[in-house]
Amino acid sequence: MRAVLWAVHTGAALLVAAGFAATLWNGVAEPGNALAFGALVALGELARWRTPPGPRRPGGRAPLERDAGEREPAPLGAAGALAYALLGQSGGQPTTHGVLQTVAVVVTGTLVGAVPHVARGTGPSPDQLARRVLTVAFAAACFQPLYNSGRLAGLVGDGAPYALFLLVLLALTALCDAVLAALMARARTAYPYGPLLRDELRALLGIGSAVCATGVVMALGVAVAGLWALCVFCVPLLLTQVSFRRYAAVRTTYRQTIASLARATEIAGYTPHGHAHRVAALSLAVGREVGLSGPGLVLLEHAALMHDIGQLSLVDPVPDGATATLPGPEQQRIALLGGAVVRQTGVPAEVAVVVERQADPYRDQPLPARVVRVVNAYDDLAGSGPGGALGALEKLRLGTGHDYQPEVVEALARVLARDGLTPLPPG
Fold first, then answer.
1. Torsion of CA 400, 404, 406, 407, to 10 degrees
2. What confidence tens digit (pLDDT) does each residue in 368-412 have?
3. I want to staple 293 with a disulfide (CB 3.0 to 4.6 A). Which of 91, 195, 304, 323 is the partner?
4. Cα 42 from Cα 108, distance rounded (Å)
5. At residue 94, what are phi and psi to the nearest 5 degrees?
6. Quick check: 170 and 216 in contact, CB under 8 A?
7. Residue 267 Cα to chain centre, angstroms
8. Spatial separation of the C-alpha atoms in residues 191 and 277, rounded to whole Å
9. In sequence order, which residues have a C-beta less than 8 Å from that of residue 355 and are 6 or more positions away?
10. Rounded to two decimals, what is the model's pTM?
C-alpha cells in the first residue's frame, strides 16, 4: 500500500516540477491574473483552521478526521485554485495560462500561505499538498485545452450551458478527489476502502459543495467583471468558513467535555489511568475495520469514552476496574447504571443506549455496543489477566458463542497485528 502513496506523491511532485519549469521557460501569462489568484490561494491558506486532535489510535498514531468541516481546512484556497483552473476569460478577454501555469501558481500560493502554519508545526501534510496539486491539475487539464482550442465554445456555447458544464466538471473533480483521498487513507491505515470513501463522499455535501459552487461563481464572475469580482465572490465562502470554524470549536468543546467525564472514574480510583482513552482509540480502529463511518464512529467514540461511568454508582470499586471479569448480571447492572448517568449529562440518547447495552449478549446489541464490549474486555483482560495480549485475545475467542461477536473479535485481532501491539495467531 505504500506504493500507492509513493505514486501519488511522485506524480504530484513531477507535475509541480513541470509547472515551474514551463512557467520559467515561457514566462507568466497574464501576470495580473496569476498574482490575484495566487494571492487568493495564499489568503485561503493563511485562514485555514487546524483540525482538533482526537483520541490517538493504537501505536500512538492519530485517528482519521471524521467531520465534514474538518476535511477541507482551507476552503477559500481550494475554491480559488479551482476557479483559476477553470478561468477562460478575465474581464471579457480570453486567457492563455494553461495547465502547467495553473499548477505553478496554485502551488506558489499554497506554500506562501502555509509559511506561518509550518512555523507553528501545523502546516499542510504532504498528502494534502499532493491532493491539491492533482485535483487542480485534473480540473485544468479537462478545461484549459478545450477552451484554448475553441472546441468548448462549439460544444456548449455560452450562458447557462457553459455554467452547467463548469458545474459538472467540478462535480467530477470533487468525486476524483474523494476517491483519491479515500485511497490514500486506505494506504496509510489499511482500513476498509468502502467506509473511507463514504466519509469522503459525505463530506462533499458539506464544505465540498460550497467550495465547488464558489469556484464556479468566481470563474464566471471574473470572466465578466474582471478581477474585482474575486473580492465580492469570496465573501460567502469566508462566512461559511467562519461558521465551520465555530462548528468545529463547539464539537471540540463537546468532545473535551465527554473526555473529562470519562476521566471521572480514573480520578475516583475506579478504573486504571488511561483506560477510557485506550478503549476509545482502539474502538475507533475496530469500528473502521468492521465498516462504521461518519456519525457511527462519533457515536462509538463517545460511548467508548463513557462506557465505565456506571462504576461511579458503586459503593465498592471493582478490582482494577475490570468489569469484564464480573458475572454477567453484575456487568449488566453496572451498564444500566452507566446509561442512567449518561442520560443526565445531556449527551445524545444513542450514546446512553450503547452504554446500557454493552453487557448484553452480542446478538441483542447494536454494532457500536458490540465493539465497545470486545475492546473493553480486551483492555481489562490484557492488563489484569495472565497471558497478556495473546491471552486476552484467546479468552475473547472462547467467548464468541454468547458474549462477543466473532467478526468484531477478529477485527480487533487484525488491528492489533497491524499496529504491532501483538502478533496475529494463525486460525
1. 180
2. 999 999 999 998 888 766 667 788 888 888 888 788 999 999 999
3. 195
4. 8
5. -65, 145
6. yes
7. 32
8. 20
9. 303, 306, 307, 309, 310, 335, 338, 339, 342, 372
10. 0.78
